[in-house]
User: Which sequence fits this backbone?
């Protein structure tokens, strides 16, 4: 079972104290099985565990600009397709972070990004490794339940 964070899923979110962010489920279509494989990253900054790409929306930046920046920073793969989902949520941080004063958690919007297979170049400041996994395997290793739910939404949309 994954760890649970205090979380709300829905469209009526109060953003006070929550940093705006996006979740990005990156996938490629496996050439041998013709099924999606998901890029799962091994987190080492702020906490340890498995996740998919995510990132905070910086001041003056749109969600799409955040998506393009995060994909470039966290894997450097060629984007073929972007899809935004009507999934939003928020969660509290497991602890407060000095570099994020005034924030107790994050809100998020969900996106998926189809990429061309290629060499993954992770951001070693945030992650220590990566795996390409099928849905069942990815769901088992992802640390947090909110990300497991989002992975399921994306997987259902691809089938």
Assistant:
């Amino acid at each position: 079972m994954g760890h649970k964070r205090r979380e709300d899923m829905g469209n009526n979110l109060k953003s006070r104290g929550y940093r705006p962010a996006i979740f990005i489920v990156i996938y490629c279509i496996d050439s041998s099985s013709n099924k999606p494989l998901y890029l799962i990253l091994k987190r080492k900054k702020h906490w340890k565990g498995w996740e998919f790409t995510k990132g905070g929306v910086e001041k003056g930046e749109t969600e799409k600009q955040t998506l393009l920046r995060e994909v470039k920073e966290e894997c450097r793969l060629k984007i073929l397709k972007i899809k935004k989902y009507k999934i939003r949520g928020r969660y509290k941080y497991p602890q407060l972070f000095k570099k994020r004063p005034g924030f107790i958690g994050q809100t998020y919007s969900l996106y998926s990004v189809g990429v061309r297979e290629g060499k993954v170049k992770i951001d070693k400041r945030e992650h220590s490794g990566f795996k390409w996994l099928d849905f069942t395997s990815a769901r088992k290793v992802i640390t947090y339940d909110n990300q497991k739910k989002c992975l399921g939404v994306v997987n259902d949309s691809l089938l």
The first helix runs from residue 63 to 74. The chain has one domain: 7-158.
